[in-house]
Specification:
With about 210 residues, the chain is mainly α. The chain contains 10 helices and no strands.
């Protein structure tokens, strides 16, 4: 007779999926939207079912619990905002990051805020958050810095080089806490030009010329 522990461990694998990949993506998107709107504590399986017109019993049968559904949504919608950025210079790459962050309207930052407290109490959620939101972004910034070193833009032993990812991700996270606003293009551009580039010994682009009559 199997032990209670073994039965519990095998329960998730016994579920049978009746949800198509396309439908799963719709559900995952709804989960993340609800998280951004109301936070983790307010997220319920009932709310997801209502938003997606999906039976609550289907959600429970497929994912079992709210944390499992959120973890699946993070992995199922994993994307890297910065991995394709390569403008030919580190300054150009970082300025493109500012543009991409502005276009994304703070979605990833909002998601990290929504999940942070809950993730500290749920190891699976924390691992999912790290692997889908944080680690890909760090890898993208490290790749930008690595290319800059190979091009000779910055010295390999520049002590500021290893902190670029921390600076960029830190300011994206900190501004909503300090000022109640997400990091936009103007703010992040100023941060790059006043803090990141000078620390790396890179020149700051000249200010854009003022239009006449403004």
């Amino acid at each position: 007779m199997p032990s209670p522990g073994s039965a519990q461990e095998s329960a998730p694998t016994s579920r049978r999926s009746k949800i198509t990949p396309e439908r799963a993506q719709e559900l995952y998107t709804a989960v993340l939207d609800l998280l951004r709107e109301s936070g983790y504590d307010s997220l319920t399986m009932e709310g997801v079912a209502s938003r997606t017109r999906c039976g609550k019993s289907t959600l429970y049968r497929q994912w079992g619990t709210k944390p499992e559904l959120v973890v699946a949504a993070l992995h199922g919608t994993r994307r890297t905002l910065f991995s394709d950025i390569d403008t030919g210079s580190l300054s150009g790459d970082l300025h493109e990051v500012a543009r991409v962050v502005d276009a994304a309207s703070g979605q990833d930052t909002a998601l990290m805020h929504a999940l942070s407290h809950a993730a500290l109490q749920n190891p699976d959620l924390l691992r999912a958050m790290r692997s889908t939101l944080i680690e890909p972004a760090i890898a993208a910034f490290d790749a930008m810095v690595g290319r800059a070193v190979r091009r000779g833009e910055i010295d390999a032993d520049n002590p500021a080089a290893e902190y670029v990812a921390a600076q960029m991700l830190g300011i994206m996270r900190a501004r909503p806490l300090l000022e109640g606003r997400y990091t936009d293009h103007t703010f992040l551009t100023r941060f790059i030009e006043c803090a990141v580039l000078p620390a790396l010994g890179l020149p700051t682009p000249p200010p854009a010329p003022q239009r006449s009559g403004t």
